[in-house]
Specification:
The complex is a heterodimer of chains A (262) and B (376). Chain A is mainly alpha-helical. Chain A has helices spanning 2-24, 32-39, 45-75, 81-93, 96-107, 115-118, 128-152, 156-164, 169-198, 201-207, 217-226, 230-261. The chains are: A mainly alpha (262), B alpha+beta (376). Chain A binds chain B through residues 155, 157-158, 160-168, 171, 175-176, 179-180, 261, and chain B through 47-49, 74-82, 84, 86, 88, 90-92, 101-102, 104-106, 134, 148-149, 152-153.
Chain lengths: 262, 376
């Protein structure tokens, strides 16, 4: 929870900085070379802040979906359940570029969610919001699966007990199921957040690799490596290792404490 | 709210179909049966936790289930206080948090009688009110589960083996709470158990469940001496349950007055002067004498008369059964109430003494044949 609050604060700061920067930039056609030269002037903090912002919003967007899906899969049997399970797992095994490309086609101006079809521009292509959406989609399987396990570990007998005490479905969910699944759900959020932080393939296709706008840590490492800025790449890699370590370690601790308390 | 309960249900189970018809206006109802007889299924059906129940369940004049008319109230609209065998306490809440779990319904329905503070006091849980469930002892957990059911403002309490799996000292600690609940709250209660003594102590009316069917029902002392029930109850024998007030407390013994002029001496360590005591004596531990005995060490030899002689007729005549094993139950009336006490003797003894209903007899038993089940 702390990391997310922190991320939100950092993101807000980054947003203002980047917007100011973007406004002063002349609107140019962006090529890989141009991007590389532009990134010359950027400190590692900029891709870091973009990454944190993208991952934060991706997590926020995917958490309700993943939790609802996890609950559905853990508690309900319905026709086609295995199909839903499989589709929800696909982003985990498909090449991220494939998912990104499908998303791009979906959002293209003549696609099903494009400007021409909907009548409004969702402003997702080549924006950080697009990066967040792509990361969210890629994080879905991890969030849904972890949430499912979290719900499966809640004894349905306790929920039934709550019903005999007069609690309706909503009250049972909010006062029994949710609190009992909270560690697992926190783990789901952190895993989703970490997955979104490291997303590359889908993001680069939907959002591009625009320094200062959509260039996340993962994309910046790629760009630095491409033009031989090895030292800068290593700095970025160190940052991602530290972030990922903290996230995975927190999840491990959450899981272990649950195992002990049972 | 009237205390009447009408059950007429069928539930398909693996090995048989549970088929139970029972109407009672008794406050405390007990169902006795072996494990696997379908006892818990009945409670779950009444609580609304099973979707495969058909028939009718009517509690206090309100239909909770009437499949013929499409009525199937969900559990949250039924109003039961369920004490399951595995307790199912909420591990993420404190003792008080558990007691308050059903508070919303309680505020709608119940009176001050069931205020959590009062339940907490009565079940002596005040010391642990803010404790986590994992910090409690087994006996405390059971009291919390009982308290949680009480605090939810139930119309009907459902107790599944409320003393099951507890050793005698722990039973002795929990039982008084149950009797206290019975006395103070007066909530209709359906209790199931495979322990005949437990059922007899807690119930005004009992039914016996065997492979999904009720094979007998009525007053406990009648039901448990019913020839049809004997083979089922035989396993743990018949235990007489006596209640009385402690009138004299010696070093290691106590004298209990069942009614004026009728006293019994029992082990006294768990009792204090003026306690109300519940004492169990196994039918096998009673000796019958037709003449007033003299020169015996046994402290108890009250006189009474034979009310009834019940033979386990039609029981399982296995070829290797010894004649001496053929038990006969003799029901003896003591005092004016009368207190009905059942003695188990062999057929040989019955024939030798030529016992007949109406004959005066003496019951002989040692102080230490009595076990103190509860003190209030």
């Amino acid at each position: 929870m702390l990391s997310r609050t922190l991320a939100a604060l950092l993101s807000a700061a980054a947003l203002t900085a980047i917007d100011a920067r973007a406004a002063s930039d002349p609107p140019t056609e962006i090529t890989v070379d141009a991007a590389a030269s532009l990134s010359d002037h950027l400190l590692p903090i900029v891709p870091l802040l973009i990454s944190l912002k993208v991952a934060f919003w991706a997590t926020l967007a995917i958490l309700p979906v993943g939790v609802a899906l996890g609950l559905l899969l853990a508690r309900r049997d319905f026709p086609g359940k295995s199909v839903v399970e499989t589709v929800a797992t696909l982003p985990l095994v498909l090449p991220p570029t494939a998912v990104g490309y499908l998303l791009l086609r979906l959002l293209a101006s003549n696609g099903p969610l494009g400007e021409r079809t909907l009548g409004i521009d969702l402003d997702l292509i080549f924006t950080w919001k697009g990066a967040a959406l792509a990361s969210a989609l890629m994080a879905l399987p991890l969030v849904a699966r972890t949430a499912r396990v979290a719900f499966e570990q809640v004894d349905p007998k306790l929920e039934a007990m709550g019903r005999t005490l007069g609690l309706g479905n909503v009250a049972v969910f909010t006062t029994i199921t949710l609190p009992l699944a909270r560690r697992g759900l926190t783990a789901a959020a952190i895993l989703g957040y970490s997955r979104a932080l490291g997303e590359f393939g889908a993001t680069v296709i939907v959002a591009g690799n625009i320094p200062g706008r959509t260039q996340t840590l993962a994309l910046a490492i790629f760009s630095d490596m491409q033009i031989g800025r090895d030292d800068e790449a290593m700095v970025l890699i160190a940052i991602t290792v530290a972030l990922s370590f903290a996230a995975v370690w927190t999840v491990e601790m959450l899981m272990r404490r649950r195992a002990v308390s049972r | 709210m009237s205390g009447s309960i009408r059950i007429d249900i069928r539930v398909p189970l693996d090995r048989f179909t549970l088929d139970v018809v029972w109407e009672s206006s008794e406050r405390w109802m007990g169902i006795f049966g072996h494990s696997g007889a379908g006892k818990t299924t009945i409670l779950e059906a009444v609580a609304g936790l099973r979707g495969d129940v058909t028939g009718r369940i009517e509690i206090g004049g309100r239909a909770w289930l009437d499949t013929a008319r499409g009525v199937r109230l969900p559990p949250q609209l039924r109003g039961v206080g369920y004490l399951p065998q595995d307790l199912r306490l909420f591990p993420h809440r404190t003792v008080m948090g558990n007691l308050l779990a059903g508070g919303r319904r309680a505020r709608r329905t119940a009176s001050e009688r069931l205020a959590p503070s009062r339940v907490l006091r009565m079940l002596e849980l005040e010391q642990v009110r803010e404790s986590a469930i994992s910090e409690l002892s087994g006996g405390e957990m059971r009291r919390v589960a009982l308290g949680r059911a009480l605090c939810s403002g139930p119309e009907l309490m459902l107790l599944d083996e409320p003393l099951g799996g507890l050793d005698l000292p722990l039973r002795r600690r929990i039982l008084p709470y149950l009797l206290q609940v019975q006395r103070e709250f007066d909530i209709p209660t359906l209790c199931v158990s495979h322990d005949a003594s437990e059922i007899r102590m807690l119930s005004g009316e009992v039914a016996v469940l065997d492979r999904g069917r009720l094979i007998a029902r009525g007053r406990p002392e009648e039901v448990f001496t019913d020839p049809a029930v004997l083979p089922i109850a035989r396993e743990d024998g018949f235990e007489n349950i006596l209640r009385g007030r402690v009138v004299e407390r010696a070093e290691a013994t106590a004298t209990i007055e069942l009614e004026p002029g009728l006293t019994v001496m029992v082990p006294g360590r768990a009792l204090a002067q003026a306690d109300e005591a519940v004492v169990g004596i196994r039918a096998e531990d009673l000796i019958l004498a037709v003449d007033a005995p003299t020169g015996l060490s046994a402290q108890n030899m009250p006189g009474g008369s034979i009310l009834e002689i019940r033979e386990a007729a039609g029981g399982d005549p296995t070829p290797d059964r010894h004649e001496a094993d053929e038990r006969v139950l003799v029901v003896v009336a003591l005092g004016r109430a009368p207190t009905r006490v059942v003695a188990a003797i062999t057929r040989k003894a019955l024939l030798r003494l030529d016992l007949k209903p109406g004959m005066p007899v003496h019951l002989i038993f040692k102080t230490h044949a009595c076990r103190v089940l509860a003190a209030l």
